[in-house]
Amino acid sequence: MTTTFENQRTALADVVAIPVTPFAEDGSVDPGAYRTLLRRLLDGGVRTLTPNGNTGEFYALTPEERRLVTELTVDAAGEGPAVLVGVGHDVPTAVASARHARDLGAQMVMVHQPVHPYVSQSGWVDYHRAIAEAVPELGVVPYIRNAQLTGARLAELADACPNVIGVKYAVPDAARFAAFARDAGLDRFVWVAGLAEPYAPSYFSAGATGFTSGLVNVAPSVSLNMIDALRSGDYPAAMKVWEQIRRFEELRAANGSANNVTVVKEALASLGLCRREVRPPSRPLPESERAEVAAIAAGWSA
């Protein structure tokens, strides 16, 4: 029987939440705070969770911590919501993480971009193929940040691995995305706008049907309002949400996205939901900039 991955495809065509990884006072992962944040997301209507994403500080976690975060997320999700586990690093590490996710009951894995100074397009295919072939039962979602990668290479990967069902596309160029998606096969994959709410309207107009979000940690209803508007084709309503979140996302994107996670954790800290600490190479927000973030978060929770 051929696996169709219909449930996984549906889950990707949604707000794909990237939970933060909260840390305790001693710097370790705080399981209690993480469970609380997950429950808040799920109670807020989120149906797709990505543990070990960039907003979860994937590259700053140890292998043991990444496994813990995966385990906590699958446990919290239960039978309903979908879990898309971030995996990456070298091929053996990524394969081991993907198999761990599968054995726990996760439905999909998102493969972080290969971290290597020399990435060839054929090598990109080889990297993802090795991971996808190791877990044929799981839906596989490449995370694409490489503007040089062609849509034909993604199609080549999917020819070899039919479990490659979606794409998190995070190149900040809507025209390039539109061309890439059509070269790869617009209807062949679920296209997820990987640069979150700021890019979601333009990427939806070009064929995306889901978007990732770190902001959703702070205000689930705001993210859900945007996707409801985009699904109905009401772009003026979607842009009203865009205007609402603009400043928050500008703060995250400043200085080459240096404070991408920092601003989200600061907002959560202002709401009393987790500590503000992030790990190097990120840094906590300076005292002088915290009030603005707190005011934005308070406005959304009012």
Automatic annotation (TrEMBL):
Q: Which residues form a coiled coil?
A: none
Task: Supply the alphabetized keyword list.
Answer: Lyase
Report if keyword Lyase is assigned: yes
Q: Identify one Pfam family in the record.
A: DHDPS
Q: Which family does it belong to?
A: Belongs to the DapA family.
Q: What is this protein called in UniProt?
A: Dihydrodipicolinate synthase family protein
